[in-house]
Amino acid sequence: MNTLNEAKKKMLKEIIKQLPGGAPPEEVKEKFKQVLKGISSEDIIKVEQELVTEGMPREELQKLCDVHLAVFGEQLQEQELHIPIGHPISILIEEHRILLEHAERLKTIVGMIEEACDSVYVGDALAELQHIVRDFQDSEKHYLREENVLFPTMEKHGITEPPAIMWTEHNEIRENKRKLHEVVEKWNKTTFDNFKRQLTEATKPICSILPNHFFKENNILFPAALQAITIEEWEEIRREFDEIGYCCFTPPSVLVKKQTKQKIDSCAPEGDLQFETGTLSKEEIEGILDSLPIDVSFVDKNDKVKYFNKAEKRIFVRTKAVIGRKVQLCHPQKSFHIVNKIVEAFKTGKKDSAEFWIIMNNRLIHIRYFAVRGNKEKYLGTMEVTQDLTDIKKIEGQKRLLDWKE
């Protein structure tokens, strides 16, 4: 990030603090014209993060973002981003462009529908409307890539507040998309006049939030990411983007990338195991497996029991004496042939899972077997997972994270 001297930083904080007091953005901009000269997205991010640290609620900072743009927008738009085709930021910006085109077209289509007296006169408009709404729904992968790959990487470099604010806005966009989709999906289940009214109400929020949100990401979030994130990290981000996938409207031309050598992960701390998705110590692995609310057992490729977890409330008794025992001997004689058939189907690749459920002590017990495969689909063994479904089957409605009470 750019170095910001203390005097300039103090003045920049004063600008932001004056905005919630109702000072007109143009008046503030004129008053601090010299301070704003050459202001960068990194400067704004640094100051806003300090304000949160000093006690400004994140929610208040989010409300101020649109006002910030009115003050800082001209300076931010002067930034030039030089990004190669196939770069994660290049992909995101192109998706922004397409979604903004959709939002503009959406406003035009809604205007056409509003002027019509009957749906028979706007058949083509309704078809295009449904196409746009489908694309909006499919844009979910765009936001997931940012939230699950880009944001965590930025946070590792100390950039925490902008991603948090952007994620909050993502959820607002999701709610707006949901409402629009609901209206369009049920357009012929109500009167045409009522549909037009609902459509207008559902369109305004999404057409308002998308331009502001994308401007903030293109001109504040992305430049900061480009400054902080390393070349090697961008290569890993692109691989993670590919894994999550892209939107139906993402142009294949922007997904082209130059071939790079696979990044070799740094060695795990001494005593830890390096996995493709992270590192864990033996204590952490055992803690995770034993905390699962399920019984887990593993039988190796030679049909011998090799491991079981110590869940707090085991359903079936397991002792260390079973380690090394043939799995066939862990079942009654009458079911030998079934066990052999399942294992053989796993080994040959004909099946990947098998499941059964029984009533035991008035509890519904779900028993599942999974083929465990390694590189090139090599058979490594079979995992047995047993779970008590009795209480789960009683769940109704929903209980969200915000409903949690101590």
Give a description of the structure:
It is built from 13 helices and seven strands. The chain is an alpha+beta fold and 406 residues long. The protein has three domains: 6-77; 88-255, nmb1532 protein domain like (Four Helix Bundle (Hemerythrin (Met), subunit A), Up-down Bundle); 279-394, 2-Layer Sandwich (Beta-Lactamase). The strands form two sheets. Strands 4-3-7-6-5 form a five-stranded antiparallel beta sheet, covered by helices on one side. Strands 1-2 form a two-stranded antiparallel sheet. Strand 5 (353-360) and strand 6 (363-373) form a beta hairpin. The longest helix has 37 residues, at 192-228.
- Secondary structural class: alpha+beta
- CATH class designation of the largest domain: Mainly Alpha
The CATH homologous superfamily of the largest domain: nmb1532 protein domain like
* Tally of structural domains: 3
Q: Which fold name is given in CATH as the topology of the largest domain?
A: Four Helix Bundle (Hemerythrin (Met), subunit A)
Q: Provide the spatial order of strands within the biggest beta sheet.
A: 4-3-7-6-5
Report the span from N to C terminus: 40 Å
Shape: globular
Tell me, rounded to a whole number, the average pLDDT: 85
> How much β-strand is present in the residues?
5-15%
Q: Which consecutive residue ranges, at least 5 long each, have pLDDT under 50?
A: none
Any guess at the CATH architecture of the largest domain?
Up-down Bundle
> Total number of β-strand segments?
7
- Please give the count of helices: 13
Q: Considering DSSP H and I runs of 4 or more, what fraction of the residues is helical? A: 40-55%
